[in-house]
Amino acid sequence: MASSRRDLAVRAAVDQGLLSSAEPVVALLDTAGIRTSAAALTSAFAAVTDAPVLHAFAVKATPLVPVLRLLHEAGLGVEVASPGELALARAAGVPPAETVLDSPAKTPAELRQALALGIAVNADNLQELARLDALVASAPTASPLGIRVNPQVGAGSIGALSTATATSKFGVALRDEGARKAVVQAYLERPWLTRLHTHTGSQGVPLALMAEGVGEAYALAEEINRTVGRQQIDTLDIGGGLPVNFHSDEETPTYAEYARLLADTVPGLFDGRYGLVTEFGRSLLAKHGTVLARVEYTKTSGGRPIAVTHAGVQLATRTVYAPDAWPLRVLAYDSEGRPRTGETTVQDVAGPACFAGDLLATGRELPLLHQGDVVAVPDTGAYYFAHHYAYNSLPRPGIHGFTVTENGGGDGGEGGDGVVAFTTVRKPQTLAEIVAESGGAHANALVG
Fold this sequence. Notes:
The chain has twelve helices and 18 strands. The chain is α/β, with parallel strands linked by helices. Strands 1, 11, 12, 13, 14, 15, 16, 17 and 18 form a nine-stranded mixed beta sheet that branches. Strands 2-3-4-5-6-8-9-10 form an eight-stranded parallel β-barrel, surrounded by seven helices. α9 (about 255-265) links the parallel β9 (about 235) and β10 (about 275-280). The termini are far apart.
């Protein structure tokens, strides 16, 4: 079980000195868990269609080269949204044919590079499409090209992450006056447009709304192909956005549930006429990351215990600033990395930053934490390793992958005697690197 592997990894991180007074915060990635999620995704869609499916991991969720390499070895491609993300994908060895470029603000240089490499591109708007016109006319390309549309089907519970609202910044808004007609005409005039893309899902978006958005894109593809008189659109990119359960170790909803829902509500999607692209991110990695932090001090304020740790806004930016939308669990371990049990106490778990709101958890029922204890913050494998926030010039922590095997050679994770092996995914940021990023080489720039 993932929770058993996590407990073993916490203890091993303390025993092996990964977490120490010198490195009071580290991040862990469960390699077996990542592989399991990748297999669950590919098998879920294989169960409902024989059509080719490219599962393109959304690099923004966990932009780490070793993660991209691991997912590529598991049969996944990548979805990138910037030159930086494309550079990471290329460093991981992901081929152009398994790479999709999405972004609402692609520059001419980005588009030119993508077309030269043969990377699939989804144009976000009609002005971008005009840029593609010029590039396609100037040089041949192997890139599959399409348009992103916004089906405008509504918002989920987190407005900032809802991509298919009436006023979303992404894609061509299909229900705006004249927009649908303009999209159909764009395909009529451009036989090289062979894909259609939409993305409705994200955290807080229910599966039914995600399926509705996919259904709208499918209906538009059918309309375009009928109008053209042939199957010009041969691939539908249905995005990703499967939400994650942050309240327990249970992995819900599942890819199988979503695939079955799509098969029931948009059956033509899986009848073999369309190739498919998915762009899942958070749901592949969230459950397989854990942040560990030492409790540096404990105190009380207003009678409430407070544990001051080294994990706060620099890692859990969304949780600190929007705790209701992004709650995280906090697990208590003693100074040797063993789970704390027994009577619970309402307490706050604070981060190291110098503002009052830097709290991982407020009024949380936990076994009373002590100085030198360890807190573990699970479900942080997606975005929490990507959104480093340099408040107080706090360094980026090291990230380590781990595997667990039993002493007898099994796959580990169930017993208490598993052997944990760590590998470095990203080294911790040094003080010298912080100085360099903060203009250290130009100290006299404003006074000389």
